[in-house]
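#help-structures
NK: newbie question, is this the right format to request a structure? protein is Putative peptidoglycan-binding domain-containing protein
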Amino acid sequence: MRLGLTHIVREDAFMHTNSELVNTVGNATLISPKVYPWDSGPAVIELQELLRAHGFNLRVDGEFGSLTEKAVAAYQRQQELRVDGIVGSKTWAALKTTVKPGTRRLSIGRTGADVRYLQGLLQIQGYNVPCNGNFGASTQQAVMAFQERHKLKSTGLVDPTTWTVLQGNPPLPTPPKQTRWTFDFRKWRRV
């Protein structure tokens, strides 16, 4: 169990098996276009974000290159899916239903278990958003209102700071400003 600001939240209330989440959220929400090696664009960006959230060390650049293809094949192997390096409906559903909340940034258009968890946290905070796993306009508006209420930068993007505050923790401290040192042949001095 996790203690929120004024409510108790059972973590397993938002986390489900793949089939339960697919039935609850619906196939249309979890499935994105089929993506092939050497494709590029927004679907590849989402794929790379999901793979990073699952622990793969990839650069998110929107290009489905050889490193992304190897990560997809490794993920498919882990999930006991057909290993072909192509991201079809089963791979998308597995990626989106097993992603842990807080492991990727969320913005409008994103879907998955982490979005559903976010929506549950927003409902607990008193925001009227559907808990459907689809980050739409109403979820974005609720996130922006939450960020404003907690004096965070109101972007509608769920970043690590927003995740932290949503889960009832104080925001992460801002690192102190670094001072620079310059070398002068005569002496060290602070700038």
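mod (FA): yep, format's fine, and the tokens are attached above. The chain is about 40% helix and 5% strand.
NK: thank you!
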